[in-house]
Amino acid sequence: GYIIKDISFEVDKKTYHFQERVKAFTLTDFEKLFEEANCFLLDVFGDYKLRKFDKNFSERLVLIFK
């Protein structure tokens, strides 16, 4: 699936509308892709404060590869 976000803002009395569409990858998807690139997963976090990742509650998926 995809994650779709609509973005609207106004600058100098002109309104702009954009739609951001990104592929929804899982942790397993990333692990497979990076393994094929010969990169190794060092750590996984659930937000920018580096808290533990929980697939049901985390705001983000932050991956550290080498």
Describe this structure in words.
- The protein is an alpha+beta fold.
- It has one domain.
- It is built from one helix and four strands.
- The protein has a two-stranded antiparallel ribbon with strand order 1-2. Strands 3-4 form a two-stranded antiparallel ribbon.
- The protein is elongated, with a radius of gyration of 16 Å.
- The protein starts with a strand and ends with a strand.
- The relative contact order is 0.19.
- The model has no long low-confidence stretch (mean pLDDT 94).
pLDDT < 50 stretches = none
Domain count, please report it: 1
Global geometry: elongated
- Element-by-element helix/strand order: EEHEE
* Estimated helix fraction: 10-25%
Share in β-strands: 35-45%
As laid out across the biggest beta sheet, the strand order is 1-2
Beta strands, count = 4
Let me know the largest β-sheet.
Answer: 2 strands, antiparallel
Distance between the termini: 27 Å
How would you summarize this macromolecular structure in one to three sentences?
The chain contains 1 helix and 4 strands, in the order E-E-H-E-E.
What key attributes describe this structure?
two-stranded antiparallel ribbon; elongated; alpha+beta; two-stranded antiparallel sheet; 66 residues; 15% helix
Q: What's the helix and strand layout?
A:
Layout: E1 2-11, E2 14-23, H1 27-36, E3 41-45, E4 62-65
Antiparallel strand pairs: 1-2, 3-4
